[in-house]
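pinging the channel bc i need a second pair of eyes. not urgent but kinda urgent?? the chain im working w is below, pasted from the shared doc
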Amino acid sequence: MDPLPTIAAETLPATVNRLKSKLPRRFFLLLAGVTEKQLVRQVECRKAENPILRSKLLARGTVTPTDRPRSTLPDYQFASDRQHWWLVNAADTGYPIRGYLRVKTEGDDPHMFGPEGFWAAKDAPIIYVRAAHHTKNTSAQLFWETADKPGFDAKQSVRFDVVPGGKYHTYRVDLSASPAYRGFIRRLRLDPVDSGARGEYVDIEYIATRKK
């Protein structure tokens, strides 16, 4: 299988819009692995996170007081697949994936986005990243997106030191040390290095709440 394509961050919206204009809605639902009814339900549950909209939806009976996405703590093991993570300004080496995800960090500001989830910050105060850095850069950054504030921001991130040289190290990233790490978290973003360079790459075994 070919490597995951690289898409520059600034061209991503335009790329998605072009695809939407050429492909039917059912294709995107199939790609997302949901039916149209499930998608509508997910949208209603997302609206329910807004107090004003929630009161209207409760009155309509569209959602119930117990409607909430199922908690899924981060446990991304790159043993045989990408775990639904995708890369920006970076690339991997394609399949087969055997025990780790090799991320080529040759672009400017290489980073990777995790799949959407839902968990309480208090339930995942520490994130462990096990990786081998074949780079000269010695700094990485882990971001999080909250349910009430979509998108990534430097204020919602923690920097941590990494050890170059190509040997595996398990990095303990204490997100709870940040006052911004509160409430419910939707997904993570990892910048494995601050800046990329030709020929450099990072091998990542896992990103999880427990040290393996």
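so The longest helix spans residues 36-47. and Residues 27-34, 47-58, 62-69 have pLDDT under 50 and may be disordered. — does that match what u expected or am i reading it wrong
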